Every structure is written in structure tokens, then in C-alpha cells.
Amino acid sequence: MELSVVVPTYNEALNVEPLYERLRAVLSGIRYEVIFVDDHSPDGTADAVRALARRVDNVRCIERIGRRGLASACIEGALSSSADFVAVMDGDMQHDERILPEMLALLRKGDVEVAVGSRYVEGGSAGEWTKDRAAGSIWANRLATLAIGTEVRDLMSGFFMARASLWRESAARLSAIGFKILLDLLASSPRPLRVREVPYTFRMREFGESKLDATVVWDFLMLLWDKRFGRFFPARFMSFALVGGSGVAVHLAALGLARAAGAEFLVGQAVATAVAMTSNFLLNNLLTYHDRRLRGAKALLRGWLSFAFASALSATANVGVAGYIHDRGSGWILSAAAGIAVGTIWNFLVTRSITWRA
Ligand code: GDD
Ligand code: MN
User: Fold this and answer.
1) Quick one: pLDDT at residue 338?
2) What residues line ligand 1, using a CB cutoff of 6 Å?
3) Where are the domains of the chain?
4) Strands 32-38 and 59-63
5) The predicted structure's pLDDT at residue 149
6) What pLDDT does residue 119 have?
7) Residue 125 forms beta bridges with which residues?
8) What does the alpha-carbon distance between residue 344 and residue 357 come to, in Å, rounded to a whole number?
9) Which ligand does the CA of 9 lie closest to?
10) Which of 7, 13, 14, 269 has its CB surrounded by the most CB atoms within 10 Å?
11) How far is the C-alpha of 16 from the C-alpha of 5, rounded, in Å?
């Protein structure tokens, strides 16, 4: 096998067959396979892939349960390959498969380690995007360039080919957060990589819909943080701490409402604590643990209970540490800050293993 084309999918059932036909047309003469990595799509994408795989001999399906994420799907697909080269490509035909042979030729020659399908080099184009989406892409690209410092023009590309050995070499260092696997791969390499960009025009989607939403932006910022400062502060902890900070504002707002409604202070404080804790739980579920998000009433209730339990423990740790430090002569503010820091770390570690365990 010379080439594996890894295709991450979520609700792309209608695209499976036409995408395969297009690949077959341009890759004839090459020993290749197509690996679909599907996150248990409700529309039956995995079944569509398996139906195809029964008829042809170069299609496989990896189906993942209880997990989501474009980047992590690509990594798993790539690591399951025994080919020399691994390409990553969207499953909605927006990436132009006709440049794959050129990418392969570049890698075969050995001058480059990564060939990137690029919209932002001469001859490439983002196609018919809305103004907002185009601006968003360019802005994100700039921010990423600043964060990781590279010559690559289309860092947001999700269409590229690399030596399989590069995937294996880098796997342990990848952040595997969100949508941007190329960025992750380039930024995770301990040595500079030889990259060449191959222009193409981003196509319109015909079937199905985009999965890009606001939480993808948060994922993107987490990824940049992880690549830049992750050694000291993991992105997930950062996100958890920011959500905790937002809880303070929620708490004060709820307390204000309780006061306006004529509640006594202690009642107001108790209600505000419960509201802030619930808001923290929901925001962490949506943002910090987007990839393992709890869904459905039962999972949410169980998650909320374990989060409440962990928060109670962490409050105890917080007060204990703050009291200990205060007893040894530290001022109020320093003691409180130490208590909060320990409580937050504690809460993070406990909820990571009980509320959102992998
Ligand atoms: N397995 C898996 N899990 N696949 C996913 C998930 C997920 O959680 N979310 C999205 N996908 C798949 C989609 O089914 C599709 O095949 C591909 O990833 C891209 O998702 P789209 O929802 O079509 O994304 P897009 O078109 O907005 O964004 C694409 O364009 C960017 C260019 O700016 C992505 O390809 C980016 O990687 C690309 O950089
Ligand atoms: Mn798309």
C-alpha cells in the first residue's frame, strides 16, 4: 500500500459513494486505500462506508463511539495505516482530489515531507465563501501564524499529505483538539519540516451540512494555547480556569437577582452558589470537554452530581489550604488566592477523572 487517504466524517452518508468514485478516477495506477473515520454519525455514514467496503477492496471504516473531533479522527485513521504516505481530506468533496497525484509525486521525490492543499498561494482560492467566513478564515490563519511562526500560507487547511513516519513520530506530541490537524502536526514537530503548498480551489458543499459552529472557535484557541504554552499550562486546564472565572460573574449576578427579589443573604448566597456551579458545569461540558460532551438527561444529571460532589471537595480543600496558610501569617488576599488555586486544580483533576473521564 503506498497511500492511505484518511477521511474524517460526521453525517456524510450521501457523500461516501461519490467521494470514493472521484478518488478512484484520479488515483488509478496508485496502490491506495480510503479510511473513513466516523464518530458514530446518526445518519448512518458508517453503514454507508461498510456497504461500499463490501464491494471494493480498498475501503475501511473506523467507527468511534462516545467521542467527537475532526483532528483526533484524522490521527486515529493515520495511525491505522501501513502505507508510506497518508493524506487527510474532508468527506464532503470540498477539497479538490485532483491535486492528490501531484502531492504524492512531491513526497515520492523526497524533497518535501508535507504537501499541503492550499487556498492562499498563487493559483488557489477559497471559492465562493460568504464574506464572514472568508474573513474568519484569514483572521484565524494570521493568529495561527503568529502563534507558531511558519512560512505556510494556508495553516487552516485540512487537506494535506505527509510521510506516514511523520505521523508516528509526532503522534505523542499532538494536542488532538478541534478541527485543525495540519496546524497541530506542523507545530508539534521538534524540527522544521519541509513543506510545499499545492494550490486548489475550495469547492461548495453539495450534500449535508458544515459542522463548523461557535465551539470550534474555542477549540481553535485551545489548540493555539496548547501549542504555545501547553508545556506549562495544558489548554484544558486553562479553559477550565476561565470557565471558573466566569462563574464568579454568574454568582454575583444571581446574588444580585436574589437580593432584588427580597431574599435573605444566606439564601441568596446558597442559590447563587448552585447557579454558578451549574453554569460552570454546562460551560465546561460545552467548551472544555467538547470532545467528550455529556448528552441526554441521564448523562447530564449524573455528570452534574459528580461535578457538585467534586466542587464540594474542592471547596473543602480551598478553605483548608487558605486557613493553613493564613495561620502561618499570610495576609487575607494571598491566603485566599492560594486556596482558590489549589481548589481549582483539585476540581480540575477530580472532574477530569469522574465527570468527563475518557
Ligand atoms: N470523525 C469526525 N468527527 N469528523 C468530523 C467531525 C467530528 O467531530 N466534525 C467534522 N467532521 C468531518 C466532516 O464530516 C467533514 O468531512 C470534515 O470533517 C470537515 O468538516 P466540515 O463541517 O465540512 O468543515 P468545514 O468545511 O467548515 O471546514 C473545513 O474547511 C477548513 C478550511 O478552512 C475543514 O476541513 C477544515 O479542516 C478546513 O481546514
Ligand atoms: Mn466542509
Assistant:
1) 94
2) 8-10, 12, 37-39, 68-70, 73, 90-92, 94, 137, 156-158, 179, 210-212
3) 3-215, 235-354
4) parallel
5) 86
6) 95
7) 201
8) 17
9) 1
10) 7
11) 13
Residue 110 has, within 13 A of its CA and on its CB side, a CA count of 0
- Classify 3-215 by CATH class: alpha beta
Choosing from 37, 80, 90, 125 the residue with most ligand 1 atoms within 8 A of its CB, the one to mutate for a pocket test is: 90
Sheet containing strand 59-63, edge to edge, reads 59-63, 32-38, 3-9, 85-88, 160-163, 114-118, 195-199
Q: Supply the angle between the helices 265-283 and 235-260 in degrees, to the nearest 10.
A: 150
What values do phi and psi take at 8, rounded to 5? -75, 135
CA-nearest of 125, 112, 171, 175 to 148 is 175
- State how far the Cα of 313 lies from the Cα of 319, in Å rounded to an integer: 10
Going from the Cα of 156 to the center of ligand 2, the distance in angstroms, rounded, reads 12
From residue 181, alpha-carbon distances to 78, 149, 326 in Å are 11, 16, 46
Taking the centre of ligand 2 as the mean of its atom positions, its distance from the CA of residue 205, in whole angstroms, is 6
Helix (H) / strand (E) element for 183: namely helix 181-188
Mean pLDDT for each 10-residue chunk of the chain (358 residues)?
A: 98 98 96 98 97 98 94 97 98 98 97 96 89 88 90 94 96 93 94 95 93 89 93 93 96 95 93 96 96 93 96 92 93 92 95 91
Which phi and psi (to 5°) does residue 196 adopt? -125, 140
Q: Between helices 297-327 and 265-283, what is the axis angle to 10°?
A: 120
The closest-lying atom of ligand 1 relative to the alpha carbon of residue 157 is 39
Sequence letter at residue 76? E
Contact assessment for residue 178 and residue 69, using Cβ atoms and an 8 Å cutoff: yes
Q: Tell the residue number behind the cell numbers 480551489, with chain if given.
A: 201
Phi and psi for 329 in degrees, rounded to 5? 100, 5
Give the containing element (helix H, strand E) for 197: strand 195-199
